[in-house]
Amino acid sequence: MSVEQPRMVTLATSDHRAVTLPEPSWCLGHALHDPETQYADIIHSSSDITLTFRHTALMTACLVQSPNATPGTAGLGGPTPGVSVYPLGETLGPAQLYELAARLDTYADDLRELADQLTRILQHGSSE
Ligand SMILES: [Zn+2]
């Protein structure tokens, strides 16, 4: 294991001038940082994982953390890292993410059932 110093990042803010804070290893960086960002609104985010079908993004998810936000409403992010899910519009913890993954498993089964049903309908229709 390496004993590296934590990465740091310095960002301009509209209310606290330039601030330097630890940069999580998973953060993509802040190349598109807006200097008008307020201190509490600084957000670290990872690259997205995207569920795409036929050029349409159905769902995206990425790690997020707003280190300076006051702990607020559950599901809206904050200083504790979470996973932001779009279009759900919520930041989830591990248990909720596993729950979402399980629901997607079930949904995939539902889609296969629908495909089976459609296949039967089409076969029936063509035999009459
Ligand atoms: Zn960051």
Describe this structure in words.
The protein is elongated. The chain is built from one helix and seven strands; from the N terminus they run E-E-E-E-E-E-E-H. A hairpin with a 3-residue loop joins strand 6 and strand 7. It folds into two domains: 92 residues, no CATH class; 36 residues. The chain has 128 residues and is α+β, with helices and mostly antiparallel strands. The strands form two sheets. Strands 3, 4, 5, 6 and 7 form a five-stranded antiparallel sheet that branches. It has a two-stranded antiparallel sheet with strand order 1-2. Zinc ion binds next to loops.
Quick rundown:
The chain is α+β, with helices and mostly antiparallel strands and about 130 residues long.
Low-confidence stretches: none
Question: How many individual helices?
Answer: 1
Structural classification:
alpha+beta
In whole angstroms, the N-to-C terminal distance is: 69 Å
Per DSSP, what share of the residues sits in E-state strands of 2 or more residues?
25-35%
In total, how many beta strands? 7
SSE run: EEEEEEEH
State mean pLDDT (0 to 100 scale). 91
Count of folded domains = 2
- Rg, nearest Å: 21 Å
Structural features:
five-stranded antiparallel sheet; 2 domains; 1 helix; binds zinc ion; alpha+beta; single chain; elongated; 128 residues
Mind sketching the topology for me?
Elements: E1 8-13, E2 17-22, E3 44-45, E4 49-53, E5 56-65, E6 82-86, E7 90-92, H1 94-127
Antiparallel strand pairs: 1-2, 3-5, 4-5, 5-6, 6-7
